[in-house]
Design brief:
Strands 1, 2, 3, 4, 5 and 6 form a six-stranded antiparallel β-sheet that branches. The chain has seven helices and six strands. With about 220 residues, the protein is α+β, with helices and mostly antiparallel strands. It is globular.
Length: about 220
């Protein structure tokens, strides 16, 4: 949703905002975290984000932030055949006093996945391809699956501000196609480069993986 129009202004959080407004939200957070470990055989934040991306509009927006996490957890568990499609709906109906048949428990199909280390930081043997102060362009390429390359920066030019450590590449890791770590760069874009001369003047810094960038020459 980042950078897409029509959502209105961004409201900063309240200073005293609690981590969880209601008790169920903390439980939803824990359930989603545990579901990811069960469904994927380990922590894969990129696969979790990809699960959220694949939710329909109602599941993503109408149930709120932590409702979205619960819906994502259900999708992860059905993806890996820990749950059968429709199992949660049937169980909820039965808990409400209805009498419906629940689908049989499927044979699990958990991906053959094991992270090479904790977290997302990795070491790579190659030197960074870009340097601080260098002008770079975000590639204008269609992405069929998960990515952390925002649509609003594609094809636009910015300046490298910071060369970050290497991270696991989300585009492949989300699909269990390997970690393929690469350097990450904090790239500064002007608002008018991204949204035209009519945009309010400000600068936006976006962290971008090396494979997302190309030379401007």
């Amino acid at each position: 949703m980042g950078g897409t129009p029509g959502w209105g202004p961004v409201h900063p959080p309240r200073r005293a905002e609690p981590v969880f407004e209601e008790t169920w939200q903390g439980r939803a957070f824990a359930l989603a975290t545990l579901s990811g470990r069960i469904a994927y055989g380990g922590v894969n934040l990129d696969a979790f984000r990809h699960a959220l991306e694949r939710l329909d509009r109602a599941a993503y927006l109408d149930d709120g932030y932590f409702g979205r996490w619960l819906n994502g957890a259900e999708l992860m568990l059905t993806d890996s055949a820990i749950l059968a499609p429709g199992a949660l709906d049937a169980r909820a109906r039965n808990l409400r006093g209805e009498h419906v048949a629940e689908p049989p428990v499927p044979e699990p199909a958990v991906p053959d996945y094991a992270p090479t280390a904790e977290g997302s930081l990795r070491s790579v043997a190659t030197a960074p391809a870009f340097a601080v102060g260098e002008r770079v362009r975000a590639k204008a390429l269609p992405v069929p699956g998960h990515t952390r390359l925002p649509g609003y920066v594609r094809g636009h030019t910015g300046t490298v501000e910071i060369v970050q450590p290497a991270f696991v590449l989300p585009d492949t890791n989300a699909h269990f196609q390997g970690e393929h770590p690469c350097h990450v760069y904090s790239v500064r874009f002007t608002s008018r480069e991204l949204w035209g001369d009519g945009a309010e003047p400000f600068a936006l810094t976006v962290d971008l993986f090396e494979s997302y960038l190309e030379n401007t020459s």
